[in-house]
Amino acid sequence: MPETRTALVTGATSGIGRAAALKLAQDGFRILVHGRDAARGAAVVKEIESAGGSAEFLAADLTDAHAVRQLADAAGDVEVLVNNAGFSWFGPTADLPPDTYDDLFDANVRSAYYLTAAVAPKMAERGRGTVINLGSMAGQIGLAGGAAYSATKAALAALTRSWAAEYGPRGVRVNTIAPGPVHTGGASRDRLTALGRTTVLSRVAEAEEIGDVIAFLASPAAGYITGAVIPVDGGRTAV
To answer: pLDDT for 150-166, tens place per residue?
Structure first.
């Protein structure tokens, strides 16, 4: 019997996380579908299983440090960790409430930090594993109204480089994907369309296009890529 490979995808009940979960399942991974909405999680699990894959839903509020630890314990040994969960906030810097600021960094940065801290050492013990962080073009360029959100994504890029140096010698690859505007169902379509026009390709990406890159980074084809921040932004940060 071939060894079962497990991938934990946070925020996998919608958008990019869902697209990544479906694609990784197609590639033969058993998927741990993380989210907070049990009904949406069950729907993703059913979709994976209907296509012949294997999946399980794990609920956790990643703004809660204890819940992050429980999620890592429930996940057990995973070969691929996709740190996708999080949220965005845009607006005047002076209008960001302190509680929202804290939640933003807890969800986008702290959850990824402590999930990786729990999972990556086990990967290193086995001599293989992949961590994929979901950054953003906002972490690479200045966007008015995006100071705090951009800072969370820049932090993920910095963590990626440090983790690549820390765990790479023992066979663990760590990378960040930095998408541009993506249709995920969570943002204003008008705002996304306007952002899409600023890219070289002059369009918004579909979540499946980001999922394809995540699956590539999880595959042997990306075996010599680590410590990288890979733009998947239609050329927005290239020019």
So the answer is: 999 999 999 999 999 99
Residue 232: closest CA among 186, 192, 199:
199
207 band by pLDDT with thresholds 50, 70 and 90: very high
Enzyme catalytic residues = 149
H helices of the chain, where? Answer: 15-26, 38-50, 65-75, 98-105, 111-126, 147-167, 189-197, 207-217
The CA distances from residue 125 to 122, 129, 131, in Å, are 5, 10, 15
How far apart are alpha carbons 162 and 168 in whole angstroms?
10
DSSP string, 143-211: -TT-HHHHHHHHHHHHHHHHHHHHHGGGTEEEEEEEE-SEE-SSS-HHHHHHHHHTSTT-SPEEHHHHH
CB-CB neighbours of 55 under 10 Å: 25
Q: What is the pLDDT of residues 40-85, one digit of tens each?
A: 999 999 999 999 999 999 999 998 999 999 999 999 999 999 999 9
Assess contact for 175 and 227: CB atoms under 8 A.
yes
Distance CA 135, CA 13 (A): 18
User: Taking Cα atoms as reference points, which of 181, 160, 12, 157 lies closest to residue 88?
Assistant: 181
- For the chain, the distance separating the N- and C-terminal CA atoms, rounded to the nearest angstrom, is 49
Token pair in block for residue 79: 């070969």
Tally of CA atoms within 13 A in the half-sphere of 125 that contains its CB: 7
6-232: CATH homologous superfamily? NAD(P)-binding Rossmann-like Domain (3.40.50.720)
